[in-house]
């Protein structure tokens, strides 16, 4: 599968919001035209606030959107740690999305049970005999370089047997979570990584340098 990398450096949050939402609009409408549905994976961090500011300007058939979570904390939806809870606050009522369009975890289960349950929920939208192929994953990055709940040095980096994996010893609280695994992330039609702030600058520099070296080899 051919991989195309496009790195965009923007001056401020307003430009990031505009660029991000423009890309989401294009990918969403392309997916809807081709597949009559748009399947997007969401992350937390700075992304919900950016989408809350910009998605209201997007022109799309909102009824065709299905919103999944790249990772989620196994906490009540009312908790400030719940990624769905944050999106519910920021997006529902701000754009024409309903709660039913979000594919949510069952917060009453253990992480292991929640991961298995989420795979079953995903299987409604993806063929069960092959890797899910999202139209778009919106991904963040921590200062340590982690994305989703895949942390440096953690055994889940090597997980290839399941779509969704549980984690009960997350280095970043809360400890109990579920996360997409790398095979699913790498199979997406498009991934947009959003990274803002000086705390991530050094890690981004390392990633960009490694990416350039890899491109030179190929």
UniProtKB/TrEMBL annotation:
> Gene3D superfamilies from the entry?
3.40.50.1360
At the top of the EC hierarchy, this enzyme's class is hydrolase
MF terms (GO), sorted A to Z: 6-phosphogluconolactonase activity
Output one GO BP term.
Answer: carbohydrate metabolic process
Is DNA repair there in the keyword field? no
Named in its record, the pathway it takes part in is: Carbohydrate degradation; pentose phosphate pathway; D-ribulose 5-phosphate from D-glucose 6-phosphate (oxidative stage): step 2/3
List the catalytic activities from the record: 6-phospho-D-glucono-1,5-lactone + H2O = 6-phospho-D-gluconate + H(+)
Q: What is its EC number?
A: 3.1.1.31
Instruction: Enumerate the UniProt keywords alphabetically.
Output: Hydrolase
Every Glucosamine/galactosamine-6-phosphate isomerase domain range? 12-213
Q: Name one Pfam family in it.
A: Glucosamine_iso
Q: Which NCBIfam families would you find in this protein's record?
A: pgl
**Family of the protein in this entry:** Belongs to the glucosamine/galactosamine-6-phosphate isomerase family. 6-phosphogluconolactonase subfamily.
PANTHER family, alphabetized: 6-PHOSPHOGLUCONOLACTONASE
Q: What does this protein do?
A: Hydrolysis of 6-phosphogluconolactone to 6-phosphogluconate.
Q: Indicate what this protein is called per its UniProt record.
A: 6-phosphogluconolactonase
Native organism is Gryllus longicercus
């Amino acid at each position: 599968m051919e991989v195309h990398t496009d790195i965009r450096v923007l001056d401020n949050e307003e430009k990031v919001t505009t660029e991000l939402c423009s890309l989401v609009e294009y990918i969403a409408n392309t997916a809807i035209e081709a597949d009559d549905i748009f399947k997007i994976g969401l992350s937390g961090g700075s992304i919900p606030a950016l989408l809350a500011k910009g998605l209201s300007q997007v022109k799309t058939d909102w009824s065709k959107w299905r919103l999944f979570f790249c990772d989620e904390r196994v906490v009540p939806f009312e908790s400030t740690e719940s990624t769905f809870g944050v999106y519910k606050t920021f997006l529902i009522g701000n754009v024409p999305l309903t709660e039913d369009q979000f594919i949510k975890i069952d917060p009453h289960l253990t992480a292991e049970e929640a991961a298995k349950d989420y795979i079953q929920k995903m299987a409604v939208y993806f063929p069960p005999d092959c890797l899910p192929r999202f139209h778009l994953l919106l991904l963040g990055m921590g200062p340590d370089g982690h994305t989703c709940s895949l942390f440096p040095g953690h055994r889940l980096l090597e997980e290839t047997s399941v779509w969704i994996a549980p984690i009960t010893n997350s280095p970043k609280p809360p400890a109990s979570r579920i996360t997409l695994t790398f095979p699913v992330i790498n199979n997406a039609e498009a991934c947009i990584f959003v990274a803002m702030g000086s705390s991530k600058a050094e890690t981004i520099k390392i990633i960009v340098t490694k990416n350039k070296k890899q491109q030179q080899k190929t």
